[in-house]
Amino acid sequence: MGTENPGRPTSRPVAPFPVAQTMSPFSSGPVVGSDPSGFRPAPPLNPQSTMPFSSSRPVVGMEASGFRPTGPLVPDTSGFRPPPLTRFNDPSVPPPPTSNAPPPVGPFSRFPTPQLPSTTQPFPQRAPLVGQTPFQPPPGQGLSSPVPLRPQQQIPSVPMGSPPQSVNYTSSNLNVSQLPLDPSFPGSRPNLQPFLPGYARKQSSSDPQVPPVQSPFLANQGGIAPGPPTTSSPFVGHQGGYVPPPPVAAPLGLQSMQHPGSGPPTGSIQGLVEDFNSLSIGSIPGSIETGVDLKVLPRPLDGDVEPKSFAQMYPLNCNSRYLRLTTSAIPSSQSLASRWHLPLGAVVCPLAEAPDGEEVPVINFASTGIIRCRRCRTYVNPYVTFTDAGRKWRCNICSLLNDVPGEYFAHLDATGRRVDLEQRPELTQGSVEFVAPTEYMVRPPMPPLFFFLIDVSISAARSGMIEVVAKTIRSCLDELPGFPRTQIGFATFDSTIHFYNMKSSLTQPQMMVVSDLDDVFVPLPDDLLVNLSESRSVVETFLDSLPSMFQDNVNVESAFGPALKASLMLMSQLGGKLLIFQNTLPSLGVGRLKLRGDDLRVYGTDKEHALRIPEDPFYKQMAAEFTKFQIGVNVYAFSDKYTDIASLGTLAKYSGGQVNYYPSFQSATHGEKLRHELARDLTRETAWEAVMRVRCGKGVRFTSYHGNFMLRSTDLLALPAVDCDKAFAMQLSLEETLLTTQTVYFQVALLYTASCGERRIRVHTAAAPVVQDLGEMYRQADTGAIVTLLSRLAIEKTLSHKLEDARNALQLRIIKALKEYRNLYSVQHRLGGRMIFPESLKFLPLYGLALFKSTPLRGGYSDAALDERCAAGYTMMTLPVKKLLKLLYPSLIRLDEYLLKASALDDHKSIGKRLPLSAESLDARGLYLFDDGFRFIIWFGRVLAPDIAMNLLGPECAAELSKVSLSERDNEMSRKLMKILKKLRESDPSYYHLCHLVRQGEQPREGVLLLTNLVEDHMGGTNGYVEWILQIHRQIDLKTALLILQLSAGYRSLFVVIAGAYEE
Ligand SMILES: [Zn+2]
């Protein structure tokens, strides 16, 4: 997003978008053949309870009995072990072109590297496979010394780089192989002794010292205990102690919403008047068009507004930066849920960056083992309750009464709280991170690994991309995570593939060229991926010489597909991050793409969506392979021509990566943006070989997931490399007609390898009340989460439908929801011709309109270049809530007054307020800053005081602004402006804001850069805000059956007709 391409009819900078596989576009990745049950520990302790919450949905491509975890072969400590190639059963993904023959020569010599047993064998014991010493480190390597992580010769299985800790591989073949499975997943963990330390011996350890506790609270709990496990009363959960215990008699009788401190009224009519907003519409007879006062329409000028009452109600919940529900009032029945009309679900950003002082505490249970429910595998959290004098704890998700391991035992005080509460962050905080004990690991956690695949064809060389990439990587070498274990490697390609021997003993890298594209192989596999600290000087020499090596290259071809396969071969041993720099449409070998063209004629037909999904299944297959081997792919695309982002982006979509698109890249213009974004990609904290699962309480379950990932089983998201900039959305549904609990709990568990080499489990827990009142659902709605989920659903829909259909579906949902809400109250309040909506949803219509106009959804053929549309879609599918809202409704601020004011350099408070996104906000005498989180646009009014322009731009201020770049000049005004930009960039570092300058009236740039993004304006065939509100209102209010109108370019005339009908 955010590159300017002069001469290109682009519009909004873009964000990439997910691509689609053939069948169900984005919603969830293909299921990669592993069966959750396959991960099940051998002798399950509670066979019946291993997968209590896993959905019963059929899992595609799985084999029930298949794929038993075996030995250390699998490079996955995550619990999600990449199934052997041959077992890749996803029907949508054809099996890789591999034979099951035993490894010919070395592990690397042929494409699917890992040589695995034949498809039909569920992986026998490891033993036969291992003629080698699987995890033997090179002799002499100390435990923490930098290890080359080089696979041993002829080890077909996964050689582990790191030193062999003290794991007994032999004996652990059967059992331990289960261990790495996400302990957070039901059944994923062997129910072996070490896992439930203290569980078995609990009884014996019930120390005699435990005093009989006679707290009233406890007694109360005791009363609940034997009963049905419906007890999720919020009180019981508040063990943590932040909330004063309720009066003893109260808990069970309380309405869920009446939790102490809970604000919102429960469904009483009284509260309504304050709770909803209303707009007078059409009150001026005969002038429908102006019936709404534009000024009073709600606008999110303060940015994202999160519902506060939820956090107040449940202070022990994790922060909303990690988890947001679309409504924090969970409907008690399916019928209620269906009347809500908006998506019911959550947006999860498991690694969101926390401000200083709010970091997630890391907890090491050491020998105690991680405390989890023995039935549903929920992690101990602030909502579990302790009973039986501290000897038992009740799971808040499934209500099972668990024993407290001896080492974890603590007495309860008079109020029933553990006396050690203060020392137990996991019982007092909604977000914690557990260190996974080493005995859980099949192999030492993988080292951070970066492999760069760089296009060096003529267009890449001429754009300057290679130089920027090489210099940026070099400048980041000290900051790559994981020192001293970090691994690195490079390959380049045009019509052939070039590998680089980086062996530490060399003084400079050796290049090897592979020209056989049909049968790609990797030469010298041992020296192509090297330990960065050991080979540092060779790596530096390589990066220094890379730009000049290809500066005169005239090769126009791209053997991208074969190069991709080679990368997989190289990386499959360890996993890691693959960064692709792609400039030319792949033209040779497997995976070549053709100019599908952006055919004007298919728009508006049933074939339109096909342009937005990959044509060749190769890319999706490759993505599945990458994910299987714990490789996350980030795609950087730079072409000035059509480059089929729809296909290329698939690689990122299904491997949990991202797409960065810089159309018509020129280093002079876009270099800074690429530099920053690549640097962030390389240096931000990354969670490696991760899997994520979200558990929820009885009666509800997540049914679909939306974002960039691969779905491993029905509810297990595979994320080979995930970071703080990625969010995942999911839809929730009720499994039972009626929920009997008063509270529903959610728990996000992300199992991953930290760059430091520690295996961790990050756990976020939250509770939400169950309500019987539809109005309450609306009042507790979270517009940010709703818009995030709606946008993903809409973008996915464009992969199987026309753009217009996707927009209509979105509009219909908004209308239905507001209509339902209106019906709730219109009678009592004689609302007549007024449009009403809950306070919580007051920005929903505007965000909906903005979504209509966003790059992935807007207009038709001519409104966004196809590649940009796809790229924007890929990006929007990953954005966290706040980032997405900023993109949809960017900030517009007037700056000239601030710059003229004699205020301190740091006085940012006096910067003007955000303005409505409309041309009416722009004064020809002013200077404005538009910021959508991906770029800045500085707009110079036609009659802006000349000295301001002079101060900011110098003598160039009279030139065409597309050729002028902003830099700091020696005057106060310039310094102030640059300081503002710097501050804004720092506050939102996930993407670099490229700064564009535009003068009022400078067309077409002004239109492309700014005017099309003023979402409140009527533009081309799209509605302005007022028209949009009127249209929604008409449709909500129409008493006829004519409910839904087509929103299209032809809408205006239709509107008049409808308006007439309404005025009857
Ligand atoms: Zn449980």
Automatic annotation (TrEMBL):
Signal peptide: none
Chief place of localization: endoplasmic reticulum
Ranges of biased composition (kind: Pro residues): 92-106
GO biological process, one term: intracellular protein transport
Keywords attached to this entry: Endoplasmic reticulum, ER-Golgi transport, Golgi apparatus, Membrane, Protein transport, Transport
Bias type Low complexity, positions: 24-39
InterPro entries documented for this protein: ADF-H/Gelsolin-like_dom_sf, Beta-sandwich_Sec23_24, Gelsolin-like_dom_sf, Sec23/24_helical_dom, Sec23/24_helical_dom_sf, Sec23/24_trunk_dom, SEC23_SEC24_subfamily, Sec24-like_trunk_dom
Compartments where located: Endoplasmic reticulum membrane; Golgi apparatus membrane
Region: Disordered, residue numbers: 1-213
Keyword Transport: yes
Residue ranges constituting the Sec23/Sec24 beta-sandwich domain according to the UniProt record: 687-771
Compositionally biased intervals (Polar residues): 47-57, 163-178
GO molecular function terms noted in the UniProt entry: SNARE binding; zinc ion binding
UniProt domain Sec23/Sec24 helical: residue ranges: 782-885
Source superkingdom: Eukaryota
GO CC annotations on file: COPII vesicle coat; endoplasmic reticulum exit site; endoplasmic reticulum membrane; Golgi membrane
All copies of domain Zinc finger Sec23/Sec24-type, residue ranges: 370-408
Record bears the keyword Hydrolase: no
Domain Sec23/Sec24 trunk: start-end pairs: 445-681
PANTHER family found in the cross-reference section: SEC24-RELATED PROTEIN (PTHR13803), SECRETORY 24AB, ISOFORM A (PTHR13803:SF39)
Family: Belongs to the SEC23/SEC24 family. SEC24 subfamily.
Name of the protein this chain belongs to: Protein transport protein Sec24-like At3g07100
Organism of derivation: Rhamnella rubrinervis
